[in-house]
Write a structure and sequence with these properties.
Layout lengths: L6 H7 E9 L10 E4 L1 H12 L9 H4 L5 E5 L3 E6 L2 E8 L2 E9 L8
Parallel strand pairs: 1-6
Antiparallel strand pairs: 1-2, 3-4, 4-5, 5-6
């Protein structure tokens, strides 16, 4: 959806109170940039992602031994891929994207 500029599909994926956090490459959270709520997230896609969409993930990268960590919680799951953390929740009988935190290393990864 982000590659194709499909805003209606992105709106259907993110929960109303979702957020995206750019950790700006540091463990410190006071300098993080946060897009709070679906409307802010959709604005981010229109202003920052659609003009220079991410490249498709090459098939060869999908077949590597990249380690993903998945943690189950009461109302959802968190998926960690490198420094990216995706949080998915179950609400209203379906899965939603609740949070993406990127460029935010943990102290243990530094």
């Amino acid at each position: 959806a982000s590659i194709q500029g499909n805003l209606p599909l992105l709106a259907a994926l993110w929960s109303e109170d979702a957020r995206i956090v750019d950790g700006r490459g540091s463990v410190e959270t006071s300098d993080d940039y946060v897009w709070q709520g679906r409307d802010a997230i959709l604005d981010r896609y229109q202003l920052a992602v659609f003009p220079a969409p991410p490249p498709p993930l090459p098939r060869s990268q999908l077949d590597t031994s990249t380690t993903l960590a998945i943690f189950a919680e009461d109302d959802g799951v968190t998926l960690i891929n490198g420094e990216d953390r995706w949080r998915f929740i179950i609400r209203e009988g379906r899965w939603w994207l609740q949070e993406l935190v990127y460029s935010a290393p943990t102290e243990s990864s530094q």
